[in-house]
Amino acid sequence: MKIATFNINGIKARLPRLIEWLEETQPDVACLQELKSSDETMPTTEIEAAGYGFLYHGQKGFNGVAILAKGTQPVETQRGLAGEDEDEQSRYLEADVDGVRVASIYLPNGNPQPGPKFDYKLRWMARLRERAKFLLASEIPTILTGDYNVIPHDDDVWDARVMATDALMQPESRDGWFRLLGDGWTDALRSRRPGGQVWTFWDYQAGGWQRDHGFRIDHLLLSPALADRLVDAGVDKDHRGREKASDHAPTWAVLA
């Protein structure tokens, strides 16, 4: 079972690249982030024509998450996170697909920091951890995938000094990440590429892609039941170099 996460950076703008990637790599489940589309304007027909059931939580112009499943329809289990009833940002979607609980996550960026956006990021991480604890306690085989907007280690970025003041690398952001992992989750890509130096994002600015100035912020976290089934994990890096590509590359894990 191949499960992938892909921050598409505008599903309508990148639709040809998305369909191309689905056809070439055939993931069983694909979790998308940053759709930037309302539910009413989602390209449902095109996704279904590619052979995928399509579950989405959209938001006009911003955010938005989705779960695609090859040959079947994901069964929604939760939309959004508890803890802040006033939070209307579309950043969390959870569903069952073929016996696996899958979450698509678009964690807040948090810049500029310090400030209200960074405070929101940290609160959101705490809310995610509470949901993740519930899923672990339920012993449901679960994978939490998405754009976490956290660079966990210094070797997850081309130059840690350049990003030192960014919200993605602040001690509080990393503390939230490692508290989550400490509850019992396995970082799929890190477990297969422990030496770091694997990027999932290259900025459009300053020749980030051309100079390979990237970092790793797209993650797949596995519950113990799925960690035992992990076969491999990687990044479809070549898709970042294609015409009108997202600034993220698809990241995936294969489970026995």
TrEMBL record:
Site (Transition state stabilizer): which residue positions? 149
Please provide the Gene Ontology terms (biological process) for this protein: DNA repair
> Residues in domain Endonuclease/exonuclease/phosphatase?
4-248
Residues at the site labelled Interaction with DNA substrate: 248
One function term, GO molecular function aspect: double-stranded DNA 3'-5' DNA exonuclease activity
Q: How is the cofactor bound?
A: Probably binds two magnesium or manganese ions per subunit.
Sequence positions that bind Mg(2+)? 7, 34, 147, 149, 247-248
- What keywords were assigned to this record? Hydrolase, Magnesium, Manganese, Metal-binding
Please name the InterPro entries in this protein's record. Answer: AP_endonuc_1 (IPR004808), Endo/exonu/phosph_ase_sf (IPR036691), Endo/exonuclease/phosphatase (IPR005135), ExoIII-like (IPR037493)
Recorded protein name is Exodeoxyribonuclease III
Q: What is the originating organism of this protein?
A: Sphingopyxis bauzanensis
